[in-house]
Amino acid sequence: MNMPENDKENLAMVTCTGPVNIAVIKYWGKRDEDLILPINSSLSVTLHQDQLKTTTTIACSRNLQQDRIWLNGKEEDISNPRLQSCLQEMYTLAQLFGVEREQLSAVARQGSGSACRSLYGGFVQWKLGERSDGKDSLAEQVESESHWPELRVLVLVVSVSAEQKSVGSTFGMHTSVETSQLLKYRADVVVPSRMEEMIRVIRERDFPAFGELTMKDSNQFHAICLDTYPPIFYLNHISHRIISLVHRYNQYYGETRVSASNTIKYSEI
């Protein structure tokens, strides 16, 4: 940003960082695409910012002539509707004007659904909610980051190219909601009981049960993708080999010591 020195004196800047979260009960599908309201609750583990994080800086001044935005060093079209939604209620703006955490959860959700879970450390659930205005569809910490210090997360990048996935998350979710018969069963029957069980095993620090639930939920997510028409393929041959390795490792030791949760991006939008 090139500005005269006297204009820089009137410039207000705020920088904040946000952690990455890995879903163990996955979010897939919206019941309201404008408010980003999910069709099922979800739960994730927030990674430490010493390992992975995003950094956002916002600058404002009466002397600036127009709004501009850069993502990963590349300027983006500021008129993009999704960007406009994020800009209106962005987390960094909230830091300037002192918004409460509960409000921030709703702000983050409207920018990118699963981002609301990153407002807390440790283990976090994004509650489905019942209200049509989405005011009760918020993130809530289940256990703090100090609850399970022995737990370790390995992040393996298995993409065979730098290209984006062939089916974006927003379009993929919409297509699944429209065509997958398994998705409604998952949202109505499977996830509610699975959320309760996952919270219980987290609180008990029961890794074999935690690992098994995580893998079963990952498998069901990809089953939903295959049940979508046209089908969505997010796993590649390297993913399949890692899954096979994890199961062979656990079978060798006779217990679940390692768990594989296959993610596709992130973030989920």
UniProtKB/TrEMBL annotation:
Q: Which residues form the Mvd1 C-terminal domain?
A: 155-259
Which keywords, in A-to-Z order, does the entry hold? Answer: ATP-binding, Lipid biosynthesis, Lipid metabolism, Lyase, Nucleotide-binding, Steroid biosynthesis, Steroid metabolism, Sterol biosynthesis, Sterol metabolism
Q: Which Enzyme Commission number(s) are listed?
A: 4.1.1.33
- Pfam families referenced in this protein's UniProt entry, alphabetically: MDD_C, MVD-like_N
The record's annotation in InterPro entries points to: GHMP_kinase_C_sf (IPR036554), Mev_decarb (IPR005935), MVD-like_N (IPR053859), Mvd1_C (IPR041431), Ribosomal_Su5_D2-typ_SF (IPR020568), Ribsml_uS5_D2-typ_fold_subgr (IPR014721)
Q: Would the keyword Lipid biosynthesis turn up in this protein's UniProt record?
A: yes
Give the highest taxon in the source lineage: Eukaryota
Q: Where is the Diphosphomevalonate decarboxylase-like N-terminal domain?
A: 19-95
- Catalysed reactions, semicolon-separated: (R)-5-diphosphomevalonate + ATP = isopentenyl diphosphate + ADP + phosphate + CO2
Q: In which pathway does it act?
A: Steroid biosynthesis; cholesterol biosynthesis
Role summary: Catalyzes the ATP dependent decarboxylation of (R)-5-diphosphomevalonate to form isopentenyl diphosphate (IPP). Functions in the mevalonate (MVA) pathway leading to isopentenyl diphosphate (IPP), a key precursor for the biosynthesis of isoprenoids and sterol synthesis.
- Family (UniProt): Belongs to the diphosphomevalonate decarboxylase family.
Output the PANTHER family linked to this UniProt entry.
DIPHOSPHOMEVALONATE DECARBOXYLASE (PTHR10977)
Indicate what this protein is called per its UniProt record. Answer: Diphosphomevalonate decarboxylase
